[in-house]
Design a protein that fits this description.
The complex is a heterodimer of chains A (651) and B (364). With 651 residues, chain A is α+β, with helices and mostly antiparallel strands. Chain A is built from 20 helices and eleven strands. Chain A has helices at 19-29, 49-71, 90-132, 139-142, 160-166, 195-204, 220-275, 294-305, 336-345, 356-370, 374-388, 399-417, 438-466, 470-474, 480-497, 504-518, 520-527, 538-561, 564-587, 595-632; strands at 7-15, 33-34, 148-156, 172-180, 183-191, 208-209, 277-279, 282-290, 310-314, 326-327, 638-639. In chain A, strands 1, 2, 7, 8 and 9 form a five-stranded antiparallel β-sheet that branches. Chain A has a four-stranded antiparallel β-sheet with strand order 4-5-3-6. Chain A has a two-stranded parallel sheet with strand order 10-11. Chain A is extended. Chain B is mainly α and 364 residues long. In chain B, 66% of the residues lie in helices and 0% in strands. Chain B has 17 helices and no strands. In chain B, helix 4 (65-84) packs antiparallel against helix 5 (89-115). The longest helix of chain B has 28 residues, at 200-227. The interface between A and B is medium-sized, with 22 and 23 residues.
Chain lengths: 651, 364
């Protein structure tokens, strides 16, 4: 739990004819992180175009399947991956079925689009007829105009001005009839002799002509009634087509989801095989797996290859710094929320400490200390519990347990402070009341901060031990010298405050340690056998080291005092609650609390929980990330991403 | 001209672009290219320059010029991104939009490929490599089977409405021309809008550099429509940009009704500003147009060169480099094509944009 899972590097040599079975077995096993290409050495040039091509085909099928699901208004849902996958033949098997469904969907969608266009046309023609209605002219006569050329149609509204500019050579009339969306229905007129010019101008302005319906020859008003009948007929047909689409969705939906699961699984394995090393007739699968699962993986490979694959296991130490071992954190489910906080900052390297359990304790404690109130804490805990029971959706993984823990911690501190929804006269305080004993609270916060800082130093040293770089940690500002100087300076400050004199040896120690930190780079290089002791000029080193030392010394003070905020926010929390009570009292009558004052208390507390809760969470995170992580955590780990079959299809 | 805080903001951009500028071809590189006996030797000379990484290892004989040009433009696109990373605010938005013209070229290539029934693998060669910056799903577009389906695939981009508006013309006449015009006009509307959002100094220099590009494009489009495609005046007005810095509807109407190109150029930029000495005034308009296009590009090249010689801590230095680099790619393609046709050195030089001595680069 305090360190990433121990990893082993495995090299699996597989004959060509067994590669699919073995790759599938590894994908189902789901715990082998493939090594990067440069780890394959000469095997990396073996060529993988066959499998890349296959993966590309599966990717295309996946896209088409997702398209079809979208066209049928179907949500991709989790479907079990078929047991038997045939990487070579699934693409053609799926193709027949997929093409068939595509054709049927395509035909229905085309009918739908045609009917929609027809309905749109009826609407536009109706508007045209509306405009022509006062004229009492028959449509048959309009089609046979001798001196005027009339064009009706829809044009992008943004092209209207340009259209008018393009008609600079002829007299014309352009009448906007109706606007819908970004298009306008227009009537355009000109003299018959200028018809070609008008037509070219309209076409180049992207006008879509709206022919006066040939089947209607009466007046505009007569045509309108007939149009209504046509519109209703087409609307009915459109409803039928949509019903057919829904029926097709019900009928084919299951097959599409099954195909999608199959195709995604095939694609994942094909892409993985394309990355394997290959020479002559043998594949090399190189990667990392947790050491405690090597036996299981070996058994799966041997079963899939019928004992013909060669399986080699190597410890990560055999590769030195050339290969980056992936990091797999194994924390219990209850710590997943905290693990999320850690990985937001960064993923621990393989040789680093996993600070998740430490953060779980410190985060929850610090949050509780700043948010101490039994009522507010129980409210948060209740919300967390509702999320855990899936009654309320959780905004992220692990948030439920984190809220529950922080809520309970806040309740504990609330009991220590004697605060219940801001009321401090209902429960007796088991420790102190923040507003009445600010100094004790602030000093306690600092003491807590010192403990946390020591945890940070401890983690730094532990990390150095794991990395085999203890010598490098001796003179590090967060290592042994830094810790010793912190103690020394702390003693030099505290002893006089407590009424004792500081012994001379402490001053000497402080000076020596300051000197050691100042010269940390050359001293470290001396200890670790590196030469030269200094890079660059001595002056440059001197100036840089001075400022680094200055920053370190300032950091001791700032890092320690930073934890004062634990007490300060506890006081602020109590203060805000007091404000709510004062406001509520203003609405109270002489006979006791009124309805208005109860409303103020309820909403005021909700506001405090929301507002303060957010601020306290941010402050706690800041303390974790900057004061604690800054001591030892680089967060440059490579995430463990095993080859695995996809869990569920997604759009 | 950026001063004070703005100048500090351009310091890193200047440093980055100065480094990129060093990769532009030196006089010795041009000599090697122009004096190469054949295409193979020209490619060898090109391989020794910063453009060498656009060449494939097996590309030694007659290259496919179109695909080679795409790969060279891929380097130009990368340079725009490198410069973009060093500027902020409205300047960065402008570079983002300018980078979009590479996507536009790719879209046109895919439309043409689908129209001609090319396979996705074949079409891929004609795409300018844009890396992960582009948000368009190129693989999905390459696998579309028809132009209408490709148009619908553009949903979510700002090209969808213009393409839908023009689709019926494509279906009626069977030519991609209306679709390409619709995309061009839509894209080049964004550039002036982005220029308007710049601060005063930046706006002036962007107007001078990119605004001139739009002027040149609009004029050339109008003349090509009239001279090569014999489109009518009303079509010419509708198929050009509404207005740019120096062109407006009245000017386009004049071009559409037969105003000579030389007169239009002098009207816009004044007598003698654009060097038209190589334009054969006695020849037909169709024969004049290539020379006019070259003259205008040389003028634009000169503006970019002067922008790089001026105050370095400003947008002009960045835009100037990007323009020069892209025009250098055009010249490279000209040289390679000319070598494949067996042209003499002098004949090639006459066709180059950057043909004269500049910055001590003695090409002749």
């Amino acid at each position: 739990m305090f360190t990433p899972a121990k990893m082993s590097e495995v090299d699996i040599f597989v004959y060509d004819e067994q590669i699919e079975a073995v790759a599938m077995a590894i994908a189902r096993f789901g715990a082998l992180h493939l090594a990067e290409d440069k780890a394959l050495g000469q095997w990396a040039t073996g060529g993988s175009t066959e499998w890349s091509g296959r993966a590309s085909q599966y990717a295309q099928q996946e896209r088409r399947l997702l398209d079809l699901l979208a066209q049928l208004d179907l949500e991709p849902q989790a479907v079990p991956i078929p047991d038997e996958l045939d990487l070579r033949r699934d693409v053609s098997r799926c193709e027949a079925s997929l093409s068939g469904i595509e054709e049927r969907v395509g035909a229905l969608r085309e009918q739908e689009a045609t009917l929609r266009r027809a309905l749109e046309r009826w609407t536009l023609v109706s508007h045209s007829m509306d405009r022509l209605a006062p004229l009492w002219i028959r449509l048959s006569e309009l089609r046979q105009l001798q001196h005027l050329h009339l064009v009706a149609g829809t044009i992008p509204t943004e092209n209207m001005a340009r259209l008018e500019a393009s008609l600079f050579r002829i007299p014309y009339s352009l009448i906007p009839v109706h606007r819908y969306g970004d298009r306008s229905l227009v009537f355009a007129f000109c003299a018959q002799e200028h018809a070609p010019i008008l037509d070219r101008a309209l076409e180049s302005a992207f006008l879509e002509p709206l022919a006066l319906p040939e089947e209607y020859s009466g007046t505009a008003q007569e045509t309108l009634s007939e149009l209504m009948v046509a519109e209703q007929r087409d609307r009915g047909r459109l409803d039928d087509v949509r019903a057919d689409l829904r029926a097709l969705a019900r009928q084919a939906g299951g097959d599409l989801l099954d195909m999608l699961a199959r195709v995604r699984a095939d694609r994942a394995v094909a892409e993985a095989i394309a990355r394997f090393g290959h020479r002559e007739h043998v594949y090399l699968i190189a990667g990392w797996t947790p050491t405690d699962r090597v036996t299981e993986l070996r058994a799966a490979v041997e079963s899939a290859s019928q004992g013909r694959a060669t399986f080699e296991e190597n410890p990560p130490e055999s590769f030195g710094a050339q290969r980056r071992v992936p990091t797999l954190l194994r924390n219990p489910g209850v710590l997943k929320g905290v693990e999320g906080l850690v990985t937001t900052y960064g993923l621990p390297g393989y040789k680093e400490i996993d600070p998740t359990p430490l953060v779980a304790v410190t985060f929850v404690t610090m949050f509780g200390m700043m948010f101490g109130d039994v009522g507010h804490g129980m409210f948060l805990a209740l919300v967390g519990l509702l999320m855990l029971l899936k009654i309320v959706p959780a905004p992220g993984k692990g948030i439920d347990t984190l809220l529950l823990a922080c809520g309970l911690s806040s309740s504990v501190f609330g009991a220590l402070y004697g605060s219940l929804f801001g009321f401090e006269d209902i429960l007796p305080h088991l420790w102190l009341q923040p507003m009445d004993d600010i100094l004790t609270l602030l000093l306690s916060a600092i003491v807590f901060g010192v403990v946390v800082l020591h945890i940070g130093y401890g983690c730094r040293i532990a990390t150095a031990v794991r990395q085999g770089a203890l010598r490098a940690a001796v003179f590090d500002k967060n290592g042994l010298a830094g810790l010793a100087l912190y103690w020394t300076l702390g003693a030099l400050v505290l002893l006089p405050v407590l009424g004792h004199s500081a012994p001379a040896v402490l001053y000497v120690a402080a000076l020596l340690l300051i000197g050691a930190l100042y010269l940390s780079e050359p001293l470290t290089r001396l200890l670790t056998g590196q030469r030269p002791l200094l890079h660059g000029s001595k002056v440059e080193f001197g100036v840089q080291a001075f400022f680094e030392l200055f920053e370190t010394l300032i950091g001791y003070v700032s890092n320690t005092l930073s934890y004062v905020r634990l007490g300060a926010f506890a006081v602020a929390h109590a203060g805000l609650s007091l404000v709510v009570l004062i406001l509520a009292q203003m609405f109270s009558g002489e006979g006791g609390p009124s309805f208005a004052s109860i409303v103020v208390i309820v909403f005021g507390n909700l506001a405090v929980i929301g507002f303060e809760g957010l601020i306290v969470a941010i402050q706690t995170l800041r303390l974790e990330y900057y004061e604690l992580f800054g001591k030892f955590f680089s967060g440059e780990g490579v995430p463990f991403k095993p080859l695995a079959l996809p869990e569920a299809p997604s759009a | 001209m950026a001063l004070g805080i703005e100048a500090i903001g351009y310091a890193s951009a200047y440093a980055r672009v100065a480094g990129l500028k060093a990769q532009l071809l030196a006089p010795a590189d041009w000599q090697a290219l122009l004096t190469a006996d054949d295409v193979r030797r020209t490619l060898e000379a090109l391989r020794a320059t910063a453009y060498g990484r656009a060449l494939r290892a097996d590309e030694t004989g007659e290259p496919n010029l179109e695909t080679l040009e795409r790969r060279l433009l891929g380097l130009s696109a990368q340079n725009v991104l490198k410069a973009r990373g060093q500027v902020r605010g409205a300047a960065r938005t402008l570079l983002d939009i300018w980078w979009g013209h590479y996507e536009l070229e790719n879209l046109k290539a895919i439309f043409r490929g689908i129209e001609h029934g090319l396979s996705p693998a074949q079409m891929r060669d004609y795409l300018i490599p844009l890396g992960e910056r582009s948000r368009i799903d190129w693989e999905a577009l390459l696998h579309e089977r028809s132009v209408p389906a490709l148009v619908e695939r553009m949903a979510g981009t700002h090209y969808i409405n213009p393409l839908r508006n023009a689709l019926h013309l494509y279906q009626r006449h069977g030519t991609l021309f209306p679709l390409e015009v619709a995309m061009d006009v839509r894209y080049y509307r964004d550039v002036p809008a982005a220029i308007k959002r710049l601060g005063a100094d930046e706006r002036n220099v962007a107007t001078r550099l990119l605004g001139t590009q739009l002027d040149i494009l609009n004029i050339l489009w109008a003349y090509r429509y009239r001279v090569y495609y014999q489109l009518s005046a009303e079509e010419i007005v509708n198929f050009t940009i509404w207005h740019t810095v120096h062109t407006d509807v009245a000017l386009i109407q004049d071009i559409a009704t037969g105003a000579p190109a030389v007169e239009i150029i002098e009207r816009i930029w004044g007598l003698g500003t654009v060097d038209l000495s190589d334009v054969p005034l006695a020849a037909s308009e169709a024969d004049q147009l290539p020379a006019i296009e070259l003259a205008l590009r040389r003028y634009w090249h000169g503006l970019a060169r002067r922008a790089m010689q001026g105050y370095p801590f400003g947008l002009g230095y960045v835009l100037g480099y990007l323009i020069l680099q892209e025009l250098e790619v055009t010249d490279l393609v000209t040289v390679i094509e000319a070598k494949s046709l067996g042209w003499s050195r002098e004949r090639v030089i006459r066709r180059l944009i950057d043909h004269r001595a500049a910055d001590g680069r003695q090409v002749e």
